[in-house]
Amino acid sequence: MSDHRDSSEGGTPAMARPAFLLSSLGLQVADEFTERLRPLGLEPIKFALLAHLEPAEGSSQQSLADALGVHRNAMVGLVDELEEQGLVQRRPHPHDRRAKALHLTEHARELVERGYRVADEHDADLLSALEESERPQVVSLLRRVAEARGVSPRGHPCLTQNSGSVEQTSTGRADEEPE
Amino acid sequence: MSDHRDSSEGGTPAMARPAFLLSSLGLQVADEFTERLRPLGLEPIKFALLAHLEPAEGSSQQSLADALGVHRNAMVGLVDELEEQGLVQRRPHPHDRRAKALHLTEHARELVERGYRVADEHDADLLSALEESERPQVVSLLRRVAEARGVSPRGHPCLTQNSGSVEQTSTGRADEEPE
DNA sequence: TATTGTTATACTCTATAACTATA
DNA sequence: TATAGTTATAGAGTATAACAATA
Question: What does the pLDDT read at residue A156?
Answer without folding.
Answer: 60
